[in-house]
Specification:
heterodimer; A: 723 residues; D-amino Acid Aminotransferase, Chain A, domain 1; 5 domains; eight-stranded mixed sheet; 20 strands; 16% strand; B: alpha+beta; Pnp Oxidase, Chain A; six-stranded antiparallel β-barrel
Chain lengths: 723, 160
């Protein structure tokens, strides 16, 4: 089996070996189009790499964790990250890297290349999902090229590919990926062209920007656009972008954006004649291929080079109906994430705080029934708006830590693909601040035995007025905790749940978050920065800073939106109270409350049903450590109130209503999956073992079951193991 | 081993029997491990690797399992390795070896050495085997019972 194929060795029927991209490029080359010279690593090279050292079995093991159809988008990302890390760390079988180095050096010398995926299956639904497989441009040096080849191979198992796993027919025993290594043509202007606009068949569309093509394809720069009349070969319209601000250029270490020189920003990257020449190029590709083409091109030294050509039908968005495609498609670039962060920190969070404070200032008791009904509606609308902001801005910003994780793993290739989270833990999380305040109160209870008695009795006002004052100041600052503690019904300032919690916390010293970054984190940070060449360190430090903000927000955002929700629930509770008491404006209140979410009925326990009982449940190892303890399954609001120190918190998903019991928990088990979700972040902050993504955890585990939680392996063992 | 009967005279060349045993242990990846607790037998499947001299079989397991609890109470075990493939012909054609001995959990250098041997055979289990919650066991085999041709049984003694 040959490790490398020359273009002339690739025929039209070779897609199962060389992949669609290589076959198309070879075809265009044969037809006389100017395309960059290239080599292809066929599917066999991939197979040889994964067959050695059990990599194929490792991929299979990773995929067997959970049915991909049942994975949340976070879990798909996690699964892809672990597989990517396997590829980065897996050694080449003996002789293979030497042979590749030699073939690449013979063909390309030391010059920069592009390393692109050439998928074997391209017609499957979902196969054209944006960012399905990896491609890299301006890669220099044998070591870097080999690493990019590993990453392109790994992208066979990208998060998006896993999403369409069934449609793509992905099978660890069968599937493979070919790679195209292409001479890098660093054109001064580049773009794409549809030989025929899918919407308007009489027209062609040309898009162009200064610099490398990647920026246009990724939507990182806004291009100039020409609409061309196909029949008469004339330009119908030229639409310049709002601003020609920057261009993507090659650098020794890859690519970077630079501000566009003033001389260029004032003029379009193509003259009208050139725009027509690009449309001609696409037209010739269409004639040669027998169907409308979507081409990528670049202009180098006045000549147009065809970078790639594929049927127009191929460029589609993700398949409709699956919101996971949307989330994964939000893969934000560094630049976009920086803008998103500025908006969130500069506007959204202050706005959320002001909104919650303004709502809290409304004295509900003084509102007439009809006014209260309107207030409930108003709060519901506000809450809905914040849920939308949460989805549209806060969740995408979570890609900040993911982007950092990918870069960190590429640079340092750590054994644990989540090692990077150690650099993100920097304290400062709102929920931890609240927990520290709680811990302070609990410490007082520990010191003064008389407080335990009044806590147990549920009233400290008379017995310990000074302590009562501390309680009140806590409530003033973190008022929502009582609401969160007691569930929605108890939202209006009930103290009892708080007293119970303090009583429980006082029973044993709680671990406290590991807020000071240890020497370990400092060492990792140094190693991370040192892995970059001097001139890129600033950028590396900025990415780390962005990731820290993303980590912090992933936790805080829940609280910010939670505070607004608390005010809605508070108004609803007041409405219900008045209805129960026989309110005058009963109809208005009933109407306003009709849309209120009532907590659903608690699901029945499935443990022991039909003679079946779970023994070991699998999930993701989201927080390292091992602990045993009795389960406390949270199904309804009141379950949380009964939480005892040393129990294992078992829940559907940790939300802000629960974080305050985390320091009491021996371990955490969550149905919702992900290594970087709220619960996992809090667990890591406290160093508590955590397993997430356990299907049906809440149904299969019963309160009181003895659990052993293995946060290294992602295994939850239920019961005593009697024989 | 004191108390054991003297090895019977080999029906065929010792080399040949040992060779067959070695091939079987090298070819198979999985074994059935038998433990017991207060007289209640317990069996489960483990991935294993054998030492060069066949005297030791290695396996790994999370500690929070029944087998580890059983081994803590009584380290005596049997391991069954067979090449049957669920075909009718296996009755006559398959070979099986039952190893009898004692298991002990390894630590430090012995664990590292055992893991290296185990992972050479099962590279995909690296993450699993290296987890701090995973125990590595060595079973020192006193004797094997090698079964061939349906009911032909040969005992192989390994005592030094």
């Amino acid at each position: 089996m040959s490790l490398v194929l020359e273009p002339q060795a690739i025929g039209p029927g070779d897609r199962p070996v060389a992949g669609g991209k290589a076959v198309r490029l070879a075809r265009m080359l044969r037809a006389g189009f100017r395309v960059p010279g290239f080599l292809c690593l066929p599917a066999g090279a991939y197979r040889r790499f994964v067959a050695a050292g059990g990599l194929a079995e490792r991929i299979r093991l990773e995929l067997s964790r959970k049915d991909a159809a049942a994975m949340r988008w976070e879990e798909l990302w996690d699964c892809a990250t672990r597989i990517r890390s396997l590829f980065l760390r897996h050694p080449f079988p003996p002789g293979m890297d030497g042979a590749l180095r030699e073939a690449l050096a013979r063909r390309f010398g030391d010059g920069p290349v592009a390393v692109r995926s050439s998928a074997l299956e391209e017609d499957a639904p979902g196969a054209s999902f944006a960012g399905l497989h990896a491609s890299f441009v301006a890669v220099s040096g044998a070591e870097a090229v080999l690493e990019r080849i590993r990453l392109v191979w790994a992208s066979l198992w990208s998060d998006a590919a896993l999403l369409y796993r069934r449609e793509l027919g992905l099978d660890p025993g069968q599937s493979a990926m070919a790679v195209v290594v292409q001479e890098m043509v660093a054109g001064e202007a580049s773009g794409i062209c549809f030989s025929q606009d899918p919407g308007v068949p009489s027209q062609a569309v040309v898009e162009a920007a200064w610099g490398l093509n990647q920026a246009v394809v990724d939507g990182e720069v806004e291009p100039d656009r020409w609409i061309v009349d196909r029949e008469h070969r004339r330009i119908l319209e030229h639409r310049p972008p709002a601003r020609r601000g920057r261009r993507l250029i090659p650098t020794p270490g890859g690519v970077r954006f630079e501000a566009l020189p003033a001389a260029l920003s004032g003029r379009p990257p193509l003259s009208p004649e050139e725009a027509l020449a690009v449309a001609d190029l696409a037209r010739r590709a269409e004639e040669h291929c027998g169907e409308p083409q979507d081409i990528e091109w670049t202009r180098s030294g006045g000549e147009f080079v065809l970078l790639q050509s594929r049927p127009t039908t191929a460029r589609r968005g993700g398949a409709g109906g699956d919101s996971r495609a949307w989330y994964l498609g939000l893969r934000r670039s560094f630049e976009n994430l920086k803008r998103l962060r500025a908006g969130i920190e500069g506007q959204r969070i202050p706005e959320a705080e002001r909104t919650a404070a303004a709502l809290a200032a409304v004295d509900l008791a003084r509102l007439a029934d009809a006014e209260l009904a309107l207030e409930i509606e108003r709060r519901r609308a506000i809450h809905r708006r914040w849920q939308e902001i949460y989805t549209a801005e806060f969740i995408p910003f979570a890609h900040g830590m993911r982007l950092f994780g990918e870069v960190y793993n590429e640079r340092l290739k750590p054994e644990d693909p989540y090692e990077f989270t150690a650099l993100l833990r920097r304290g400062g999380l709102l929920s931890l601040e609240r927990n520290r305040a709680l811990e302070h109160l609990a410490a007082l209870v520990r010191e003064r035995p008389e407080l335990a008695a009044c806590l147990a009795a549920g009233d400290c006002a008379a017995a310990a007025p000074d302590f009562q004052k501390e309680l009140e100041s806590f409530l003033l600052r973190f008022g929502d905790v009582t609401c969160e503690l007691g569930g929605r019904a108890l939202c209006a300032g009930a103290l009892r749940p708080l007293l119970h919690l303090l009583h429980e916390m006082a029973r044993r010293p709680s671990p406290g978050p590991r807020d000071a970054p240890g020497p370990d984190a400092e060492r990792l940070e140094e190693a991370y920065l040192a892995s970059f060449p001097e001139e890129r360190r600033q950028e590396a430090a900025e990415l780390l800073d962005l990731a820290r903000a993303s980590w912090r927000l992933r936790d805080d955002d829940n609280l910010h939106v939670g505070r607004i929700e608390a005010r809605l629930r508070e108004a609803e509770a007041e409405g219900r109270r008045r209805l129960a008491a026989g309110a005058a404006e009963e109809a208005a209140l009933r109407g306003a409350l009709a849309a209120a979410e009532e907590p659903g009925p608690a699901p029945a326990a499935g443990n022991g049903e039909g003679g079946l009982r779970p023994r070991q449940l699998r999930g993701q190892p989201a927080g390292p450590g091992f602990a045993r303890g009795p389960a406390r399954v949270i199904r309804a609001a009141g379950d949380l109130e009964r939480f005892r120190a040393g129990e294992v918190l078992v829940c559907d998903a940790i939300d802000p209503r629960m974080t305050h019991v985390v320091p009491l928990a021996a371990a955490i088990v969550e149905r919702r999956g992900g290594m970087l979700i709220h619960g996992a972040i809090i667990a890591r902050e406290y160093g508590i073992p955590c397993v997430t993504g356990v299907p049906e955890a809440v149904r299969l585990i019963r309160t009181g079951d003895l659990l052993a939680v293995d946060g290294y392996l992602g295994i939850v063992t239920v019961g005593e193991g009697e024989l | 081993m004191s108390g054991s009967p003297a090895p019977p005279p080999p029906a065929e060349g010792t080399e040949e029997v040992r060779g067959l045993l070695a091939r079987l242990l090298a070819a198979e990846r999985f074994a059935v491990l038998a433990t017991q607790r207060e007289g209640q037998p317990y069996a489960n499947l483990v991935a294993f690797a054998a030492s060069e001299d066949l005297s030791t079989l290695f396996f790994v397991t999370p500690r929070a399992t029944r087998k580890v609890e059983n081994l803590r109470r009584d380290p005596r075990v049997a391991l069954l390795v067979a090449d049957s493939r669920n075909r009718a012909a296996d009755i006559a054609a398959a070979a099986a070896a039952t190893g009898i001995g004692e298991a002990r959990e390894l630590a430090g250098a012995a664990r590292a050495e055992a893991l290296a041997r185990f992972l050479a055979r099962h590279p995909a289990l690296e993450e699993f085997a290296r987890a701090p919650t995973c125990a590595a066991f060595a079973v020192r085999i006193r004797r094997y019972l090698l079964v061939r041709r349906f009911q032909e049984v040969t005992e192989v003694f390994l005592d030094p």
